[in-house]
Amino acid sequence: AQSVTQPDIHITVSEGASLELRCNYSYGATPYLFWYVQSPGQGLQLLLKYFSGDTLVQGIKGFEAEFKRSQSSFNLRKPSVHWSDAAEYFCAVGADSNYQLIWGAGTKLIIKP
Amino acid sequence: NAGVTQTPKFRILKIGQSMTLQCTQDMNHNYMYWYRQDPGMGLKLIYYSVGAGITDKGEVPNGYNVSRSTTEDFPLRLELAAPSQTSVYFCASKTGGAIQETQYFGPGTRLLVL
Questions:
Q1: Residue of chain A with shortest Cα separation from B33
Q2: B48-81: pLDDT as tens digits
Q3: A112 sits in which H/E element
């Protein structure tokens, strides 16, 4: 069955430290991969997406993600987090053969001052 | 552009009551979606629409109904509220049907059924 796993429910990082959020997927078709962010009280906003080409994808707000087919992963990274990055982050996967995205359960990022 | 707007932001319902969650987008998007978000779970698709007059079921449609009489509006109807429908509901829209297109989300409606 198709699935997306975000192994970390919560992650706490000090302001200025680096960040990596994990996303693993199980999908038979060639996947399209997405990271969305949900700031408190707001809807989800697209950070970045991958569907072909360079496996290292740059997004908004200084985020990047790397697609690793051999590991079925699409981890999100940021070299130095800011307090404003505190939010919940969702990974999602889709394919041409399906009409909807499959969503991970989300990882809540907490920033320590 | 206001983007995707949802009303109300928060609502408490008693079991058996009905209500409509409103969703409006001003981006002239053809595709619109309703999701529910439960704690510790990913978004689940309830219903979606590919254009005015056309709707279809998603993964978890039971207990809900939708209509799409205009491009802009996509209301979600709960006829007989049940505690299992306590959730946060998100409406989203996008231009077309390609899976790689970006979805734009509203701020959500938090619903509590007691």
A1: A100
A2: 999 999 999 999 999 999 999 999 999 999 999 9
A3: strand A107-112
